[in-house]
């Protein structure tokens, strides 16, 4: 039975990744809609045999999973003794009823609408069930497993409270919470993976229309979460203009600077080795400008990373005005990163010192980041639109001078050219 469940989980994971790819290929409100139906149909036709294969695989996975469920599952505690409640109620309705007792709404308990919860449960079902402890299977429905995990992330409630609410043991509550994070971070990390060139073109077009800055592929920022015991966890993320997370790196101790964290990441290495942000440059004011990110003063000025100008008393009035407009534009763009960070901090488990070991805390941050993007895709802005504020930019610009000899003229010339372009954009 264990091998059957693992096969089902594998097939489901492959299918889920294919469906996520289709969302990227056809990013309209529905996978079946497109602004250009004939073009979408032509583009999709070559994928149909592969889609059919994977959908058939998903049906097989569902069959294998269903045939393996010959055990009796733990049921949720009764929520009402009235005879009318004796009729069979769906697991989803029961999870909703138990989860929202004493809570304002379904969204307050699980951070999402009931329809998104049901969609997510269908996506994760075989994966949530495939790795129970060998000697003591939990015998819990996927709806209950997801409900427990989401309640932990959404509210930050302790395991004793969760166990009492959902009628399970504390060890089961702990397992389901960690298992949800493991499943998301292992099987769906591509939802926060750095985009391919085609998708980055769309990101840069959005920034261009909003700011006049061409070839910008994201905003980079770093924040820190506190663990019980005063240890901190540093998290670096890159976002687009809609606060969608394009890349996230967690797992660094919070005593490192933003620049040190950046240089320790695979993203930094990939960009330096031209494996990312490697599309053709654009010419701005006679200067070649490669694809780039923008960030706060805690980061160095690099050919692919632009930060605000520092003070320079010797510059002309016109040059100073251009730099001021560029700085104001970068600060405005960084609000999208601040909103994403604020949205993450609204997850209950991240809104307070995290009472977990470091590795589990990293998993919770990763899971909340993936779910952040899922909710943007499924439900729009929500908490992201409600938050306005600054990120953890604690730099003072000294890194620009520190790295001047290494990267000076190329980065400086490109930034000056972009400052002139911003000034032109604001005048138009």
What does this protein structure show overall?
Helix 1 crosses helix 6 (114-129), helix 4 (91-99) packs parallel to helix 7 (142-155) and helix 7 (142-155) runs antiparallel to helix 8. The termini are far apart. Helices cover 55% and strands 9% of the residues. It has helices spanning 2-25, 37-45, 48-68, 91-99, 106-110, 114-129, 142-155, 159-166, 170-187, 197-211, 258-263, 266-272, 317-333, 335-345, 358-379, 383-386, 398-402, 404-427; strands at 216-226, 232-239, 245-253, 282-284, 287-289, 292-294, 305-306. The radius of gyration is 24 Å and the shape is elongated. It is α/β, with parallel strands linked by helices and 428 residues long. The relative contact order is 0.10. The model is unreliable at 19-73, 79-89 and 387-406 (pLDDT under 50). The protein has a five-stranded mixed sheet with strand order 3-2-1-6-7.
Brief description of this entry?
The protein has 428 residues and is of the alpha/beta class. The chain contains 18 helices and 7 strands. The chain is 55% helix and 9% strand.
Structural class: alpha/beta
User: Uncertain spans, ≥5 residues at pLDDT below 50?
Assistant: 19-73, 79-89, 387-406
Order of helix and strand elements from N to C terminus? HHHHHHHHHHEEEHHEEEEHHHHHH
How many beta-strand elements?
7
C-alpha-based Rg, rounded: 24 Å
State the helix count.
18
* Average residue-wise pLDDT: 80
Strand order of the largest sheet: 3-2-1-6-7
Q: Estimate what percentage of residues fall within beta strands.
A: 5-15%
Shape: elongated
What does the largest sheet look like?
A: 5 strands, mixed
Helix content: 40-55%
Report, as a whole number of angstroms, the end-to-end distance: 67 Å
């Amino acid at each position: 039975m264990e091998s059957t469940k693992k096969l089902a989980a594998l097939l489901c994971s492959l299918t889920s990744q294919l469906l996520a790819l289709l969302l990227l290929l056809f990013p309209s409100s529905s996978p079946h809609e497109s602004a250009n139906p004939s073009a979408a149909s032509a583009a999709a036709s070559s994928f149909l045999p592969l889609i059919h294969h994977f959908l058939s695989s998903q049906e097989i996975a569902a069959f294998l999973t269903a045939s393996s469920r010959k055990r009796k599952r733990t049921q949720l505690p009764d929520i009402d003794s009235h005879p009318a409640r004796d009729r069979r109620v769906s697991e989803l309705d029961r999870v909703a009823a138990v989860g929202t007792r004493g809570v304002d709404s379904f969204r307050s308990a699980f951070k999402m609408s009931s329809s998104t919860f049901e969609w997510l449960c269908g996506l994760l079902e075989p994966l949530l069930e495939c790795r129970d402890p060998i000697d003591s299977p939990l015998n819990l429905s996927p709806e209950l497993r997801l409900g427990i995990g989401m309640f932990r992330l959404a509210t930050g409630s302790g395991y004793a409270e969760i166990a009492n609410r959902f009628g399970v043991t504390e060890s089961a509550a702990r397992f389901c919470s960690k298992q949800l994070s493991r499943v998301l971070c292992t099987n769906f990390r591509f939802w926060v993976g750095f985009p391919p060139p085609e998708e980055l073109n769309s990101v840069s077009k959005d920034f261009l229309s909003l700011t006049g800055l061409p070839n910008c592929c994201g905003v980079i920022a770093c924040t820190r979460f506190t663990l019980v015991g005063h240890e901190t966890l540093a998290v670096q993320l890159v976002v687009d203009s809609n606060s969608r997370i394009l890349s996230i790196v967690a797992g660094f101790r919070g005593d490192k600077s933003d620049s040190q964290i950046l240089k320790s990441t695979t993203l930094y290495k990939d960009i330096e080795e031209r494996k990312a942000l490697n599309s053709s440059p654009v010419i701005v004011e006679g200067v070649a400008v490669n694809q780039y990110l923008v960030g706060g003063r805690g980061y160095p000025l690099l050919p692919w990373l632009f930060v605000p100008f520092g003070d320079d008393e010797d510059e002309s009035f016109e040059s100073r005005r251009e730099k001021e407009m560029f700085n104001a534009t970068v600060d405005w763009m960084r609000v999208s990163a601040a909103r994403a960070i604020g949205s993450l901090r609204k997850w209950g488990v991240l809104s307070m010192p995290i009472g977990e070991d470091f590795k589990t805390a990293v998993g919770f941050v990763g899971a909340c980041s993936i779910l952040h993007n899922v909710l943007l895709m499924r439900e729009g802005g929500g908490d992201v639109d409600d938050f306005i504020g600054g990120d953890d930019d604690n730099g003072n610009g000294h890194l620009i001078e520190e790295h001047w000899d290494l990267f000076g003229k190329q980065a400086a010339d490109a930034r000056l050219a972009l400052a002139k372009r911003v000034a032109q954009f604001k005048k138009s």
